[in-house]
Each structure stands twice: as structure tokens, then as C-alpha cells.
Amino acid sequence: MPLHVLVLGGTTEARRLAESLDATDGVRVTSSLAGRVARPVLPPGGIRVGGFGGAAGMAEWLRVHHVDAVIDATHPFAGTISFNAASAAAAVHVPLLALRRPGWVPAEGDRWHITDSLAGAAELLPELGSRVFLTTGRMGLAAFAALESLWFLMRSVDAPEAPHPARMEVLLDRGPFSLESERELIRLHRIDVLVTKDSGGEATAPKLTAAREAGIPVVVVARPPVPPGVPVAGTPEEALVLLRDLTLLRDLTGL
In terms of pTM, does the model score above 0.85? Predict the structure, then answer.
């Protein structure tokens, strides 16, 4: 019977990992997507969409579908499902590891203001600028809704829903984004402050370089921690090595 690996996905790294697992003899991969993006790029292998119903529901799914290992490759800010996965995996004695792309590191010339929440970011903004490039996604816009004196350019894959800032222009787009396009966007919209989550990765990093070049401040929301005791890989390749080290795939070739 093939080894069944559940990948909690939705990220580029999760798709790459699913591709590698799907191409490995003796492995069956299922990717679980939250369903919040209207037209996701689907990875190979099995697909399930939607929530599990909390930790207990996930544990039951792992039992029923005979899952042998779980890899949490969700977005670094999808904190709830990460802790649910830790509880569920422990309940059914299934190994769990996390795949998290490394966070961003400030460079010389950056004017970063680090906070631990969107609410914290909203508190900082009035002292930093008046034309905000908001790149934290369409969820959580309520944190900025009361900032009526500020203008926002909000970029996300799908259209946002209320509540959100009253003075807001929406840019629907999906990365990766080039440095030249980020420079032009900041210039065209007269942006004087950028807000981002520390998502890491290269696809959306050029905005940080463009902000540094323009001399504008950046409010960075720090990522939540991975659940205690969960091994962490920084790349899909490292995740495959961790699986092997857990002796899950030691008899399989190609890893």
C-alpha cells in the first residue's frame, strides 16, 4: 500500500512539494486547500477543498483516509490550521512537519516598523504616511476600516468584502511581481507607506526593494510561530529530507 501524505497547501512551496511526492514511487499525495481563492493553481495528486471542522475533524479525516504523514505547507500566517494540524496529528500518532519559506530580513536603508498584528499596523499608519500600499491580502481589512483620513491601494488575488477602508482602490493581481512594476506602482499612486506581512519568498519581495529605493517606511507584520515541537523545513527539498529522516520514506527511491 502506498504511503499516504497529506499536504496542507495553498502556497507555491506546497505545489512544488506535491509535484515531487506525486512523482515518487510508493507515495500517494493529497493536497488540502482552504478554498478562499476563487481560481487556485491546483497541484498534481488528490485534492480536497474546505475546512476539516477543527482539530477533531482533521484527526477523523486522517484516520478515515489512512494518512501516514502530514506536511503543513500553508501560508505562514494561516496560524489556526497549523495548531489544529499539530493537535490532530498528535491525536492519531501521525508524524507532522511544517514547510515554511524563510522570512524577510531588512537590508541597509530599510525603514521597517515591525508589529505583531494588523491592528498594530493600523495604529502605526497615521504617523507614517497618508497614501498606503496595503499588501496583507483581503482578509483582515476591518483592522484598517476606521482610518478614514488615509487612502489605500489594496492588492489581492480576489476582491475584498466589507468592512474595509472607505477610501480604497483595489488592484486584483497575483505574483510574482517585478521590481520595475513595483517601482512604477509606488510612483503612479504616490505611495508613501507600505504595509506587508512577513510572508517571505521571492514572488512579492520586490516591493520591499522598491520601498527602500523610494525611501518610504514599511510596516511589517511579524509571522506567528509554528506550534512547539513541530520540525520545520525551509524548502520543499528540505521537507523531503525531513520525511526521510523520520524514516517514513527510507525504503523509497528518488528522495
Answer: no
